[in-house]
Design a protein that fits this description.
Elements lengths: L9 E5 L7 H11 L3 E6 L1 H6 L2 H8 L2 E4 L5 H15 L3 E6 L5 H4 L9 H24 L3 E11 L13 H23 L2 E7 L5 H4 L4 H11 L7 H12 L9 E5 L10 H4 L2
Parallel strand pairs: 1-2, 1-4, 2-3, 4-5, 5-6, 6-7
Helix pairs in contact: 1-3, 1-10, 4-6, 6-7
Bound molecules: nicotinamide-adenine-dinucleotide.
Nicotinamide-adenine-dinucleotide binds next to helix 1, strand 5 and helix 8.
Length: 267
């Protein structure tokens, strides 16, 4: 259902690894709505994933960038503006990785050096992206910056481990930096708190498929898919949501408002 919501807009999308990625689906939808995009991912992910296939479909260029490297981010944002013909209208930060989760360390026995790396990749990179874009004066007025979060920032999901703290930090950066962006150039900054989604990052969490079913049953609308999340990103990049900023927006089929769902008892 293309209706030109992003006609004339240009932006950068971080984090498309494969077809399952939320970023991949968002890139497709943004393209369908008329946007021009630069795709980026960590150099190692570019070697593993199929991002060039996505780039071919949507006619985008791919620029490698480790989102923890200020040098890479500087290069990415300078080059993107050259390719896209000017300042950016939107940025999607769709990045998450926990070494402790990957190595199956228990929450009560975490490696704190790895924890710092997790925070750097999954949360501080969002600050780094925004700081670089601001330093380069790279955003158009009324632009929109979005990152993806999860409700473990507010509530306990034991197997989500240190990613819970990463998401709390991420959401806080959206609020704090959102203030500065708003004052500077009316740019809005929000996080989307998305349902569990069957992606590479999602299914790395212990017991993910059981948890996915639990959440699906608990949510009156079921879990939100990556395509539905992509649609929501389009609305946040469009001019229809210009006054929404510094928010954590729940995109979860109703999960967060539930107390008791009898159907869960029969799972
Ligand atoms: N899948 C879920 O259940 C779920 C739920 C809520 C929120 N999210 C969030 O959505 C976002 C996207 O994840 P996804 O589920 O699409 O999984 P995904 O695995 O497809 O995407 C994660 C991306 O992060 C990238 N990445 C990792 N380290 C990086 C680095 N140093 N520099 C640049 N990129 C790096 C990976 O290459 C990958 O493309 C993440 O923030 C994730 O936490 C996911």
């Amino acid at each position: 259902m293309a209706n030109g919501l992003l006609e004339g807009k240009v932006g950068i999308i971080f984090g498309a690894l494969d077809e399952k990625s939320i970023a991949w689906q968002t890139a497709l939808k943004c393209h369908e709505q008329g946007a021009k995009i630069v795709l980026t991912n960590a150099p190692v992910a570019l070697r593993m994933g199929g991002i060039q296939d996505l780039a071919d479909i949507i006619g985008a260029e791919v620029i490698p960038a480790d989102a923890t490297s200020m040098e890479d981010l500087d290069n990415l944002i300078v080059k993107s503006q050259e390719i896209l013909g000017g300042k950016l209208d939107f940025i999607l930060h769709s990045i998450g990785m926990s070494i402790n989760v990957r190595k199956k360390k228990e929450y009560t026995d975490l490696n704190h050096d790895w924890m710092l790396k997790t925070f750097d990749i999954s949360a501080i990179s969002f600050h780094k992206v925004m700081q670089t874009a601001m330093k380069l004066d790279a955003m158009n007025e009324w632009g929109s910056i979005v990152a993806l979060s999860y409700m473990a920032a507010q509530r306990v999901f034991p197997d989500y481990s240190e990613m819970a703290e990463s998401k709390a930090l991420l959401e806080s950066f959206a609020r704090s930096f959102g203030y500065h962006w708003g004052k500077k150039s009316k740019v809005r900054v929000n996080t989307i708190s998305q349902s569990p989604t069957m992606t590479t990052a999602g299914s790395g969490v212990k017991g993910f498929s059981d948890f996915y079913s639990y959440s699906d049953t608990m949510s009156p609308l079921g879990n939100a898919s990556s395509q539905a999340c992509a649609d929501y990103c389009v609305t946040l990049f469009s001019d229809l949501t210009r006054m929404v900023t510094m928010q954590n927006l729940l995109h979860d089929g109703g999960f967060s408002s539930m107390g008791m769902e009898p159907d869960v008892l029969s799972l």
